[in-house]
Design a protein that fits this description.
Radius of gyration: 13 Å
Strand content: 25-35%
Number of strands: 4
Low-confidence stretches: none
Largest sheet: 4 strands, antiparallel
Structural class: alpha+beta
Distance between the termini: 13 Å
Shape: globular
C-alpha cells in the first residue's frame, strides 16, 4: 500500500534549503519517490505556520520510504538540512484513516 512522506520545515535560511534540496532530491527519487506537491504555506487555518514549507512524496510502500530516509546517503545530509531550519518529517499510509 502506498505511503507518503510529509515534511514540514520552518525555514530560516533559504540558501541552505536550496543547497540541501539539490542534494536530497536525487537520493529521494532514487528510492522511487514521486513528488506529490511542495512549496510555501500560503494560508494558515489554525496555528502558526509562518516561514514554513511543505513537501509531500509518495513511495510504493512504507518500507521503501523508511529505507530512503534512513539510508546513509540521506542521513549524511542531516546537518545541512538542519542549517536551513527545523523540520518535522513523518510517514502516512495512503488510504488509512
Amino acid at each position: 500500500m502506498p505511503a507518503q512522506v510529509v515534511t514540514i520545515g520552518k525555514i530560516n535560511n533559504m540558501n541552505a534549503l536550496a543547497e540541501y534540496a539539490e542534494k536530497a532530491m536525487p537520493i529521494v527519487m532514487a528510492y522511487g519517490a514521486r513528488m506529490v506537491t511542495g512549496g510555501p504555506v500560503v494560508a494558515t487555518i489554525e496555528g502558526d505556520m509562518s516561514n514554513e514549507r511543505v513537501a509531500i512524496f509518495e513511495f510504493d510502500d512504507i518500507a521503501r520510504a523508511e529505507a530512503c530516509f534512513s539510508s546513509p546517503e540521506y542521513q549524511a545530509l542531516n546537518d545541512q538540512r538542519d542549517q536551513a531550519g527545523s523540520f518535522e518529517i513523518f510517514i502516512i499510509q495512503v488510504g488509512k484513516t
